[in-house]
Every structure is written in C-alpha cells, then in structure tokens.
Amino acid sequence: MSDIHERAARELRAVVDRFAAGEAEVVRAYAQAPHSMEENVDVLLRQMGREVQRKKWMDRFHDLAAEMERSVDRHTYAEILEQMSEETAHYVLLADLVEELIGRKLTPDEALKYEVFTRYEVGRPFEQTYHPLLPEANRLIDVAWEAVQALGPDRCRHLIHLAEGGGGGAFVEALRLHGDPFRDGLARAMRRIVHDEMGHGPARIDGYARDWVHTEDELAQDVHWLSAYMAQHLRVRNEIWRTPLSEERLAAIDRGDTAPFDPTVESVAVGV
User: How many angstroms separate the CA atoms of 192 and 186, rounded?
Assistant: First the structure.
C-alpha cells in the first residue's frame, strides 16, 4: 500500500476502535447498575428491533432478485441475502431469550415494538423511516443521508460498512456478562452474534483505503463522515441500553477519551 493508503487505513481503523471502545463502555455502564427484569427485557426488545430491520426490505427484494446479473451485481445480491439471514437469526435468538425470561410468548406488538429502519433508503419518505420512541435511531438516518449528499451513494455505502455493528465493542462486552438469567442468556446469544458480526467492518478497512482514498481531501472527508456516523451510532447504542452514559460522557468519547477495552473474543472466559 502507498503512504496515503497506509495512513488512511490507520486513521480509519483508529476511528472504528475509538467508538467500539465507547460502545463497550455503554454496556459496562448499564451492567454496573441494578435493573429490573422489565428494564432488561426492554434492552433486548430494542436490540431485536435493529436485528429484524431487514424484514422491511421484503417489499423491495423481488426487484433485487429480478435484477440480479442485470442492474444488481451477484456479489451484492449474495451479501444482502447473507445479511438478511444472519440478522433474522439474531432476532430469533434474542426473542427466544425474552420469552425464556418472561415465561410466555411475546405478542406481535411486543416483539416488533422497536422495529426500525437502520439507514436512509432512497425513495422512501423520511417520515416512514422514523420511529416515535427512538430519536437517536432517527438521527442516525439523518446522518447517513447527510453523508450520502457529501460523498455520493457508492462511496458512502462502502464507508458506512466500516462502521458495521459499531465496531463490535458492545457485542464483545455483552458476551462477558454473567451472573443472572438475563446476563447469562444474553452472553449465550452473543456468542452467535459475535461470530457473525466481529470483523465485518474492520476487515474492510484496508480494501476501502486502497480502493477509495487517493488524496488528502478524500481522507479528511472519510475520517469526518465515519466519525460523525459512528458518534451517532454510539448514541443509538446508548439508547438501546436505556441511556446509561450522559451526553457529557458521550461527547468526551467523541473527542477520543475512551476507557481501556480489549476487543478480542479470545479474552472472554470460556463457559460464561
């Protein structure tokens, strides 16, 4: 890689690592305080709402399938199918856990209470993508739209992929929880989710830097928009976990003040 590509990879990875550590801190902060089962279940329902979001693509999936090898690249089609399958499986894991904790079946309204759009979709009115209970998730759609206007849809799509799962910090930290039915059950579910999610974003960084960053201006734009997107994703994670971090603490993380965090799954105790 050339010097500009190496610096781009290094700086973009630093952004992902910073906010991954911030998302892990959200989970730690929640876990350090006592919570009722109702609050714990609410966290799971909020995460379920993000995992089930691919269901909202079904009205457009027929067109994607029809256009494969025409206007839709086969690799893109396969990637969308894989993402839909994985995220639906994650939703099922978490929904099953909720029902185990509450001792009954969820009603449809309960299970889908926090179902959201996770990104701006071209051609869909904004009011159809906003959720009345999730202002930070709504703002993430706005930030993604602003990034599209600044970078263009193709560049933005590849850049935002680097932020997938918020860098994975929250998932790894949740995998470390144990000590009661909620924590133990969530750790079990997170084993599958971590296996599917970890590395998706970071694994793309070198390729993105090589293919998309050729000038200092492009690097500065990418660092700015990746930081803006991940800063808002951090606030979404905080919203999912019922806002354990203050806005002052979130702003400090934005500036780079993060607590130590070991992102390696191998550091998680076996059997938790």
Answer: 10
Q: For the whole model, what pTM was predicted?
A: 0.91
Domains of the chain: 3-266 (1.20.910.10)
CA distance 9 to 203: 11
Of 209, 215, 244, 249, nearest to 14 by C-alpha is 209
How far is CA 17 from each of CA 46, 54, 168, 223, rounded to the nearest angstrom?
Answer: 24, 26, 9, 13
Residues in a beta bridge with 68: 72
The H-assigned helical ranges of 52-134 are 58-67, 74-102, 108-111, 126-129
What is the pLDDT, as a whole number, of residue 265?
61
CA distance 179 to 272: 9
Question: Is the pLDDT at 42 greater than 60, yes or no?
Answer: yes
Residue 207 is predicted with a pLDDT of: 94
pLDDT digits (tens, 9 = 90+) for 94-122: 999 999 999 999 999 999 999 998 877 76
Q: Chain-wide mean pLDDT for the chain?
A: 91
